[in-house]
Amino acid sequence: MAIFGDTQACPQAVRTAQNTDVLAHEATFAAGDEETAERIFHSTIFDAAKLALQANMQQLYLTHISARYTEEEQCLMLEQQAQTIFPASKVVGDFDVFDI
């Protein structure tokens, strides 16, 4: 398992996470908010999904979603954005529990 929090996309991340089964990654912003994410050193949904794909992951758990996305349909939209790149993506909340 690899865990990335409060970080921007970087080439070292792929090497670090290569071929681990599960990635938990901060994905504070939706696709399209790249400038904001870069300015405050966070990732977008697409950043996390691309890393999972490039590192040959099996499952991606998206965490640390911005408070601006509070509605269930907004979180579903974020999850669907990630799934366009990495189908095994899931938006999760604090204290969610999963068997891995």
UniProtKB/TrEMBL annotation:
Top-level taxon in the UniProt lineage: Bacteria
Gene Ontology MF, one: 3'-tRNA processing endoribonuclease activity
Protein name: Uncharacterized protein
